[in-house]
Design a protein that fits this description.
Length: about 650
Amino acid sequence: MNLMPLPREMRPRDGHTPVARLETKGADTPRLTAAVGRFERRLASIAGGDSAHHRVRLDIVSGPASEHPALGDDERYRMDVSAGRICIEAPAEWGVLRALATLAQLVCRNGQAPCVAHCEIDDAPRFAWRGLMIDTVRHSISIGTLKRTLDVMEFYKLNVLHLHLSDDQGFRFLGDAYPELADPRDRYTADELRDLVRHASARGIRVVPELDVPGHTSSWLAAHPEWGLGEPVSAVSRRFGVHACCLDPGSRDAMRAVATLFGELAQVFPDTHAHFGGDEVTLPAGRDLRTMQAAFNTRMADILHGLGRTPVAWDEVIQPDLPRSVVIQSWRGAGARDRALRGGFDTVHSAPYYLDLMYPADLHYAFDPATDAGADLARDPRVAHVRDGVLALSRTWSLESGDMNGVGGGRVLGGEACLWTELVTDELLDSRLWSRMPAIAERFWSPAEVRDTGDMYRRLEATHETLGSLEVFDPAKGLRERLMRSGLSREDAHGLMPLLEMLEPVKWYARLLGGSKPGATGAERPYDVDTPLDRVIDFIPPESLAVRRVADLHDADRLREIVDGWRNQRDQVVRCSGRAIVDELAGISTTLFVLAEQLDAHLCGRDARVPDAALEPHGEYVLPVALHLAERFSQRVGCT
Ligand code: ACM
């Protein structure tokens, strides 16, 4: 069984029940009727449209649920699959949604008919807050993509979509009071957002809106320079990185606008929580940031309480006199989380779940939202090329994690993965997200003891296949289509695959910063809002599971086929030369050719070595298979 997240308890039994046509009892509310309909459509995509010979009874017994989900809702369920019958019992409708997600993942093909293995499942989430933040600003993300994301979030039992709606590069919310703030082209109307919230609520997913204040507000100041402090702003920024300006908390007009805008958001988003950002504020020299920010944050907490909302903010807002009702989203390491907890704040932990860092799934999976379990980034060879940057940032951040004079008593509400979109467009979002998010969803839902990385990868590959059949995540197809758009034939694109499937993007912020050291300023950064994201680097998945398959392979004949593919790809790159999309791969293609020669030598029992250059980035690309080969050659692993 390839469930992801794994349930709390599962007892497999002998036998399979074919499923094609459901006779459903008990799905008598609009939400449950719609959910069963979604399940049936999923079944049809996963099962491949088989004719409906096999009937199965689906009995649902559930308590009611409110119109919109809320933090701490009961999401438990029990499910029993036996011959010709599936029973779901849940204290509230939310549990039925989670059970149907499990059921959709249980469907497999056994010979011809789609079927479900007999089993009993008793399941409940570990954490109440299992979130995903999407930055809708650095690149605009369409409502259609957000809805599709909600559909897939339901499949992995995620229950909070946090929408980052404003930043230096844009303001996406079109309200009534300050329409001049909203981007004229890429913005969401209140009705579009209400529709999105309905879509989410039907799937048991909360939507938490964020307007990021007082920093990250160049887009506000482009329309209202008089609200600002710091660097003068004349236009919405096109560059990335922290900007040296912020809203002036001493400006009555600015504070009135903030209060009005959050009031308008409260009319659109019913969720009990609203996020006011608070991260990375910079002030002109001579201004006292701590005092200013403390007063501002307390005022923001008052505004949101006045609207009946629980405030949420990034961890920079932690300060002794901040009301303990503010939920802290810790993004600068476990130190920030622990500081919040010591101070008595409830916390959502995000630091280890930044999907834009391009880390492999197991690095995220190793980190626990509530304990010190985690990966050793300082020693992991896959991030050695960015070690200086990783360590420098974590040193800077840990300086902040001093004592909080607090009373303790804060709780970890859960975790939230973050997808910042400097290098993500609408088209690229699925690949950047679902390549690794299923593993993180498991960390947020399943018991803490579920930690077997090998088993996680086995199920991650299987779930990627399912996402392929749902037309959500199919990186090879995306790459092929991109290459063919640039004029390559299908055969050319196919011939490049042995190279492309071995490539990964450099890790951490190395692409954004143009290297592996922190501190590159806007002008030195290679990317801004207008840089096209249409190269191979943008279409390869952050982690290559093909590399893992090579690493696990010990069959000499299969390895020789791989050697042939790695040799032939170089000829293919030469044949396609003259096209920029391929030319930038010439160097790394040659390196893979050299690795093919070395692997061949190894298979023939001769000495083999991985050249140092193969372990280094080639521009923005890395060849992680070089690490596996270095280990293989040093161990002289035998072949069969
Ligand atoms: C953040 O990543 N600046 C919250």
